[in-house]
Design a protein that fits this description.
CATH topology of the largest domain: Diaminopimelate Epimerase, Chain A, domain 1
Strand order of the largest sheet: 9-10-11-12-14-13
Mean pLDDT: 92
Number of strands: 17
CATH architecture of the largest domain: Roll
Distance between the termini: 72 Å
Radius of gyration: 24 Å
Helix content: 10-25%
Largest sheet: 6 strands, mixed
Number of helices: 7
CATH class of the largest domain: Alpha Beta
Number of domains: 3
Order of helices and strands: EEEEEEEEHEHEHEEHEEHHEHEE
Strand content: 25-35%
Shape: elongated
Structural class: alpha/beta
Length: 306
């Protein structure tokens, strides 16, 4: 069936024809965009006319650098963004509420904390999270994903203490007594705690990705470059979830996968070989990190030397 959409306010992004009122589609392809004259080029049979009643139509947005699968995982976590929690006391109340709804010993995970936007303008520490969740291991990710905050229980479970050395490429922040403050810098340090958090399985990712894609649709996003798949050590589960969604006709979004370099040698075993890919799901590139994050102040901007 050919569909012709009429009475539309179409923003074409074409400087030679910036506006249009009609467009036609067949399956997943545009037949053309134009004005009333365009109707004369459409065959008269098997045509469905849809009146858009003057609504605005724009091309779908291409999200050129984001983390769709990482966002999907946060749908199970506590929202600690500055839009949600304005100060640390507010965040502590949210964590305490979550703890009251969670069995003792079960983990509390949060995401999106930004010390530069919160009114206190400081990082979280063990004391903040210990007061809010004394009986639960807690780990809150910074909005940059290059920092994280753990409470004392999470550090003890992970074996991170005063004698723990900094891992290569990471740093454990410490107080004046050399005890870990709770602040962990860069994935190498964060993984000391995060490796004890159970990974999501393929079925969970499949369900969460469908919710995340629905959110993208509501905001006009039709293509996503999912950067750093495997950053959270679960590339196989994420890739398989994407492949299952595509095979079931449930993807509904163009996804360009960027795979972390640590999985480079496993690409073929992950099924990313010749003949892989479709209009909706493609392997985009392999991602490497050369340094840290400007936002987290872990990236070198100059080199000292004599």
């Amino acid at each position: 069936m050919i569909r012709v959409y009429t009475n539309a306010d179409v923003m074409t992004m074409n400087p030679e024809q910036p506006k249009a009122t009609i467009f036609g589609t067949f399956k997943d392809r545009f037949l053309g965009v134009g004005s009333d004259q365009f109707l004369k080029t459409i065959p008269g049979t098997m045509v469905e006319h849809i009146d858009l009643q003057g609504k605005t139509v724009i091309p779908g947005f291409i999200e050129s650098h984001n983390h769709l699968s990482m966002y999907a995982a946060t749908l199970l976590q506590l929202d600690c963004r500055a839009e949600t929690v304005r100060d640390i006391e507010n965040l502590k109340r949210e964590v305490k509420t979550k703890a009251s709804q969670t069995a003792p010993g079960q983990r509390i995970l949060g995401f999106g904390y930004d010390d530069t936007l919160i009114s206190d303008c400081r990082h979280l520490n063990c004391s903040d999270l210990d007061v809010a969740a004394p009986h639960h291991p807690a780990l809150i990710m910074h909005v940059s994903a290059h920092l994280a905050y753990a409470n004392s229980k999470a550090l003890v479970i992970s074996g991170v203490g005063s004698e723990t050395s900094d891992p290569e490429g990471g740093h454990i922040d410490r107080d004046q007594a050399r005890r870990p403050s709770g602040l962990l810098l860069e994935p190498a340090a964060i993984d000391l705690v995060k490796k004890h958090v159970p990974k999501l399985n393929t079925d969970q990712y499949r369900s969460l990705l469908k919710r995340a894609i629905s959110y993208y649709h509501r905001h006009g996003i039709t293509s996503s470059h999912d950067g750093a798949i495997g950053y959270t050590k679960d590339a196989p589960e994420i890739i398989e979830a994407y492949r299952q969604l595509e095979a079931a006709g449930e993807l509904g979004l163009r996804v360009y996968m960027t795979i972390m370099y640590s999985y480079y040698d496993q690409l073929t075993s992950l099924g990313l070989c010749s003949a892989f890919g479709s209009d909706l799901l493609k392997l985009g590139s392999v991602k490497l990190f050369q340094d840290g994050s400007i936002q987290a102040l872990t990236e070198a901007l100059s080199e000292s030397g004599g």
